[in-house]
Design a protein that fits this description.
The chain is an alpha/beta fold. The chain has 12 helices and 9 strands. α2 packs across α3. It is globular and about 55 Å long.
């Protein structure tokens, strides 16, 4: 995995600290061309991994990338699924079978039959595979190394003790897409325990890691110990704690956790993207020499 990964929250009005900023971002990025303008900046600054949800408009982003493969030849996409709001809205509007019919690929009758049977049998692993396949249609033909399970599902399964689901997801994305499974969570230490119990070795886990312990269930010191002593591939996200920490202070802290493999961030302007990338690179170089 690359050291620096770019995220998509800002494109879809996700701001954990300010509704006003969320509204401003929603207006700015209402057109997908505006999203591509930022991704062009990102790519030209040398950030070649884009970690994104499966929001409907990401399909349009994928169309842009497919339409100019030479321009984006080194661009890797890390899909994160499911995009919960999309399914919640669809179930409210269409019901479960209607939602399956809307999102599943292939023959409508066959898909609804398979999806309906899975629902009837409460076969959640079969449903998961159908939904993953549905979400992956928008990424067809793109460079996909890792497919992530969103924290809304990861942490629900964690709470329910459904560890078999993690194994099934890992096997499905490897067998069907040649990709590694990644997991997003708000409780990294507990998730790592459960993944190891399942026999998933050296897992990829993306979680909040920041100097003030923002959204770090179990506490900052436990995270530091786990990162230092356990075998996994951590991705640090929310490193700025929704803007509560200055970029320099935030990146300095994360880079001091030397076994963190990648740092995920999002920004809207060239100046902020460039500044954060350069901070990560300079702090990583400094820590490696110490």
């Amino acid at each position: 995995m690359d050291r620096v990964i770019f995220g998509d929250n800002q494109f879809f009005a996700v701001n954990h600290m300010s509704d006003e900023k969320s509204r401003a971002q929603a207006m700015r990025f209402k057109d997908t061309r505006a999203v591509m303008d930022v991704l062009d900046i990102v790519y030209d600054l040398g950030i070649h991994t884009f970690m994104c949800t499966t929001h409907d408009r990401i399909a349009e982003v994928c169309d842009f990338i497919r339409a100019d493969k030479q321009r984006y030849k080194d661009f890797k996409i890390y899909p994160c699924m499911p995009y919960a709001h999309k399914y919640a809205n669809a179930v409210t509007e269409l019901g479960i079978i209607g939602t399956l019919k809307r999102f599943m690929p292939g023959s409508i009758l066959g898909t609804v039959a398979r999806g309906g049977m899975a629902v009837a049998k409460q076969d959640f692993i079969s449903m998961m595979k159908l939904l993953v396949d549905a979400e992956m249609t928008m990424f067809k033909g793109l460079d996909i190394e890792v497919i992530f399970l969103q924290n809304v599902v990861t942490d629900l399964l964690l709470g329910l003790g459904m560890k078999d689901f993690f194994v099934a997801f890992t096997e499905h994305v490897k067998e069907k897409y040649g990709a590694e499974a990644g997991f997003i969570t708000m409780n990294m230490p507990l998730l790592l325990d459960k993944l190891e119990e399942c026999g998933i070795e050296n897992p990829i886990i993306s979680s909040s890691i920041n100097k003030i312990g923002f959204r770090m269930s179990g506490g900052k010191h436990l995270y530091e110990t786990v990162i230092q002593e356990r075998n996994f591939r951590p991705i640090a996200m929310q490193v700025l704690a929704a803007g509560s920490i200055s970029p320099h202070e935030a990146i300095e802290y994360v880079c001091a956790q030397k076994r963190i493999q990648s740092i995920l961030f999002g920004a809207s302007t060239r100046a902020h993207i460039k500044q954060t990338k350069e901070l990560i690179e300079s702090m990583s170089w400094k820590e490696n020499r110490s």
